[in-house]
TrEMBL record:
SUPFAM superfamilies: ISP domain
Name of one Pfam family that matches: Rieske_2
Keyword Oxidoreductase: yes
Cited PROSITE patterns: NIRD (PS51300), RIESKE (PS51296)
Alphabetical list of PANTHER family matching this protein: NITRITE REDUCTASE (NADH) SMALL SUBUNIT (PTHR40562:SF1), PTHR40562
Keywords: 2Fe-2S, Iron, Iron-sulfur, Metal-binding, Nitrate assimilation, Oxidoreductase
Gene assigned in the entry: nirD
The name this protein goes by in its record: Nitrite reductase small subunit NirD
Gene3D superfamilies referenced in this protein's UniProt entry, alphabetically: Rieske [2Fe-2S] iron-sulphur domain
Amino acid sequence: MTVELRVAEGWLTVCELSSLVPGRGVAALLPDGSQAAVFVDRTGRPYAIGNQDPFTGAHVLSRGLVGWSAGRPFVASPLLKQRFDLESGRCLDDEEVAVRTYPVRTAATS
């Protein structure tokens, strides 16, 4: 099974699902030069958000800590610790800030 992100050009294969470790992210360079942070939870569900921390400008969200708050998955930035909802991209600590989210799916490898 591969993890794929929806980008302007269509579905982009990022990696094998088995390469992702629950609670840890990986960064993916996208065709437009931006980056995505890709995560998988303990049930095997993948998530993808923009990798750039909007508070610092650094591309580090893939290195953040994954957790749950009120039944929703989030990643905490490794720099200033703001938490970003992995489903909506919304910052849980500042409702006026959000990061981009990407549609993500798993696909069988041939």
